[in-house]
Design a protein that fits this description.
The protein is built from 7 helices and no strands. The protein is an all-alpha fold and 125 residues long. The longest helix has 21 residues.
C-alpha cells in the first residue's frame, strides 16, 4: 500500500517536469514554474525561473538530450546568469531513470554484503 502511494506522489510530482525537454520546452508555462519551485529545494522565485527558462528556450531546443543541455550550462557558464534554471537542471540529473536501476543497486549491495560475510575470518569466543 505504501509503495503504491509513493508511486502516485512521484508521478504527480514528475508531471510538472514534462515541458522541460527540448521538444516540449515551448509549452512551458508559469504554472509549471510555480509547481517546480514547490518541488525543487532552493528555487525561491517561480517567476524568475519562468523567465530564465523562456530566455533559454532557443538554446534548449537545439539540444537533443539532457546531457547536451547540461553541457550547455557548463560550457557557456550559464549557471552564473541562470542560477534557477541551472539548479533545476542539476535536480533533473539526480532523478532516478527507472525503479529497476534502484533495485539493481540494492541487489548489488546485498551481493557485496554476502561476499564480505563469507570472506570474514571466523572467530571463536
Amino acid at each position: 500500500m505504501k509503495y503504491e502511494s509513493y508511486l502516485k506522489v512521484l508521478k504527480e510530482s514528475l508531471y510538472w517536469f514534462r515541458n522541460l525537454s527540448s521538444s516540449t520546452i515551448n509549452n512551458f508555462v508559469e504554472i509549471d514554474a510555480e509547481n517546480l519551485a514547490k518541488i525543487v529545494t532552493g528555487l525561491d522565485d517561480s517567476l524568475l525561473l519562468f523567465q530564465e527558462i523562456k530566455q533559454l528556450t532557443p538554446a534548449i531546443t537545439q539540444c537533443h538530450n539532457i546531457s547536451k543541455v547540461d553541457n550547455m550550462f557548463m560550457l557557456k557558464n550559464c549557471c552564473k546568469f541562470y542560477a534557477r534554471a541551472c539548479l533545476l537542471d542539476q535536480f533533473i540529473l539526480t532523478l532516478p531513470i527507472t525503479m529497476s536501476s534502484n533495485e539493481r543497486s540494492f541487489s548489488k549491495l546485498k551481493l557485496i554484503k554476502n561476499y564480505l560475510r563469507s570472506t570474514m575470518p571466523r572467530t571463536n569466543n
